[in-house]
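Morning F.,

Quick status update on the modeling queue. The single chain you submitted on Monday has been processed. Sequence for confirmation:
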Amino acid sequence: RALRERRGGGGGRRGGAPAAKGPGSAHEALLIGAAGESAHRAAAFAHLGLVCSANGDEARARKCRTRALQLNPADPTAGPAAFADALSGGDDAHATSICRRALDIDSRCFWAANRLAPMCARANDHNGAVVALHAVLRVTPDNASAWEALGASYNALGRHSAALKAFDHALQLSDSAGEGVRAYAAAQTGFIQLALGSSTAAIEAYTKALSDGVDRVAALCGLASAHVYYAKGALRLGAPGRAAVSIRDAEDAASRALSAMGERATETAWKLLGDVRSLAARINDPNLAPDMNAMLDVRRVAAKGAVDAYEKALSLKRDGAARWRDVSAALKLHADVLRLCGDVEGARACEAKAFEYALGYVRCDPADPHAWLALAFTNDPNASVASDERKITALSRAVALDPTFADAWTALGRVYLANGEIANATRALDSARIADPSSGAAWTATAASHLARGLVDESRGAFRMAAALGAGVEADVGCALTACAAGCAKDARDAYAAARRAAECAPRDAVAAIALGLCAESRGLFDDARRAMRDAMAFSESVLVEPRGDASVTCALGADARVVRDIARSSLERLDDVIERAADVDILSPGEDIEDAIDRLTTLVDENPDDDASRVALARVSSRSRVHARALAGAEQCPVARATGDHRAQSARALSVAACLLNATPVIHVDNDVVNDDDDGLSTMSLGTRAMRLIARAAMFNPTDAECVRALDIARSRRQGVVIARADADADADAKDDNTQRHRALKAALAAHARGEFADAERFARDVVNDVDCPTSAASAARILLASFLLARAARDGDKNPQKEAGKVLAKIPLDDASSSVIELTRALSSSVAAG
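Structure tokens below.
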């Protein structure tokens, strides 16, 4: 009644008329309800507070709400009103306590949980916010806003996996309800994915946050950062094309963010744009590789843009020491690119400016070891002291300020190495690896120090580690060249892969082309090797005309362009000879006899034992020989396949070895690379069992290969003693001939008994005996075999029942029309039965 009257009266202050009092009024009814003991007493006090509030008596209204909450802390009328009073009075602690008491009484109290969650989040009590939001979601599980807030609380607690699930659920609910994109959830998903190292997922999330066409600065900056992260990874793994595409998207996102901020653009946004352009200046886009000038122009423009962006960031924050470092590094990069373009004067001017900014960095923060490292990487155009001495002094100061500064130790080791101080270089590089074992630059410099001491194997190991860490072109080239020097480039897959990465990332570098050519030659890719060597010749000529400075891999490895050209020329001569010889080696001259061709190829193999093409040709031609010994001898010359990594190749290898085992012919070597004493115990098995194991291995590597099933069927048939015909026509003819089938069964029985498979032997013999259409001669032979098997079992087991059965079987052999040999065998076996 009180509610009806209140609604009809227009609502107190808002309606302009106070609530009625007196007999029969709502006020009287609420007073009566509040005075008595009942389950509705708390509600009566709560509504009495509303009436008092409508009449302008706020003091009495607060007392009524307080009494209502004392009776029922979860009251849905008094609770929200009391919370609003506490919040308007600035008493956040009291407001929070109202909600907590309500949730202590009723864990599903929606109004309390819905108000407590933001209060806890504002007070950095994210655990409390999580508890409150779970209460909200128990009542409204499809509340996308609650899921989004829950993800934010999980993210603040560092529970990234739970935050991702909550944000994803919020996005799904929003999409299904047609509410549009939830930009905060999508952007936070991208932020978490990028922090976890998943750049592709971060790019997808940030793109979703921007899908409504609104340029949100945070999402745009996050998208640019994600593209930069992806481009760095692609460049590290040898995919410059993907890196170039991703860095263009990053620059577009960063530029849009700056446009959205306008005059309010911060130094952080300008730094991000500088980072994007700085990375773009380091990428050789393979799409522009045919036109080297166009590629260098793109890099030059990007390097100049990076300098401009960093200078703008520095102008906004002059006291930011890191901004001085960024400008100095960008100017040094710009100088390197200008030198590649042939602009020597422009490069010198950039280096002079880089030195000035490095000095400014040192003045701004002389206690920062990065400042001294930046100073060491620049050249003073007016210095009277030797450059190396100044670098050693600056780097020594850097490592003194921070003994765990791996980059400074690495740079110091390289300076010592360039001056021939191998011992000092070794100590510095050891300190670099101790400070950061995952530093690819430190491992690359360590490999160079090993080379300086003539330790090729140790250098190869260090280069391989550096290449695996993504140290860049120098590490990849070193890994490939040291593999060739150690003579293991043929079997080392990482060497060829490293050479390919180096050639793609440095498409005009002569040393990278040399490395690719040598690795391709070692793998038998002679055409690719010849193409790479021709490129190396052309690149070495361009190096002689246009010196390329420190940015060149040639200079980084200390190689001389003339040496590179001589290596390329000698390699081309060798490759031309190999390709010409291989073109004619497998062709029989007109009228040439097979045996004469085998003799010619044998001589060629003896002269060139490392030429795999000649050995393959000898094996192929020898397979046509009419002399079995020569065919086997030629097959032995075939190079052994060592399949690693490719499952299909491993499957084919296992099938080939199994086929040779089934034929008992050593066409393919079964050496320690394929089957050894520890390889599932195959060396101690019979040929048939080893073949079965190898076929099973082939099926495991390539389960969809029908040849594996066919080989397995052949192997099983061989174990049963059944001879499989070699031609389908012969197989069809044999299948139609019942006598041939019975003959096979008898042979299978003998073979099974010889292998010790006695039950199978008896079964094969009984099948022929029980055949009603079996001719008398075949049936007699089968009964003789079966009787002999039964007698053997009786002697083996000491059982008289098989002996009795053997006598019955022999008694059924008709001796009237039998041959003399059948009669003699039958009588001999019968005598054995009678003698026991």
